[in-house]
Amino acid sequence: MRKLLSIFIIVFVLCSGLNAQQFVQEVNAFATLDARQSPPDNAVLLIGSSSFTFWKDVADYFPDHQFINRAFGGSSLTHLIDYVDKVVYPYKPKQILIYCGENDIAASKTVTADTVLLRFKTLHRLIREKMPDVPISFVSIKPSPVRAEFLPTVVESNKLIKKFCKRRKKTDFINVFASMLSEDGKPMEEIFIADRLHMNAKGYQIWKNVITPYLIK
Question: Are residues 75 and 108 in the same domain?
């Protein structure tokens, strides 16, 4: 029994190390990109998880804006906190858009809306310490069909973060959640790809329509 437990611990540690290393490599790749070509100042900085990572053609949706996409797939708010010095601090954006929190909730049923709020508040504080005047916009956690069991926590997390944003200067809450629901109140299946987690062009068009009024000109 002890031998089996030891094996389990070793495997867990190794897997955790591999996941951490994966993020390190992705984040370090951003610095490599910056060294090859200096990122523009006064651009919109995207940070967060795969819903931003996969938005490769984001500039096509917003031709009047420049973007720096520093989202990395699979990330949670805790990862953004860990890597804020690499995905936020090196840049001089005119605005920061954040999409994150969905992976926090899906990682464990013990993660509550209060947990998500606390993590976002920590990230917000870290950004404000270095960038006191840059507008921050939090894109609401989306209703992914494959994660329907977590929707109550998603709804409550969005509610708490929206309330927090209202109390902070130059901080917006962008509600894409409501526009991604069908008339029966369920997530629209047709705006997602086969994995029912990531969006297709129809989904990103919804995001474009909702986000546009919040973008700084």
Answer: yes
Query: Do 79 and 138 have their domain in common?
Result: yes
139/197 same-domain check = yes
Note whether 168 and 140 are same-domain residues: yes
Residue 165's domain spans which residues?
39-214
Token pair for residue 134?
């840059």
Q: Per residue in 142-176, pLDDT tens?
A: 999 999 999 999 999 999 999 999 999 999 999 99
Could you please report the per-residue DSSP string of 2-62? HHHHHHHHHHHHHHHHHHHHHHHHHHHHHHHHHHHSPPPTTPEEEEESHHHHT-TTHHHH-
Residue closest to 132 by CA, chosen among 97, 171, 79, 160:
171
Calpha distance 216→36 (Å, rounded) = 27
Residues 28, 96 share a domain: no
- Per-residue CA distances from 38 to 6, 31, 35, 91, 200 (Å): 48, 10, 6, 10, 30
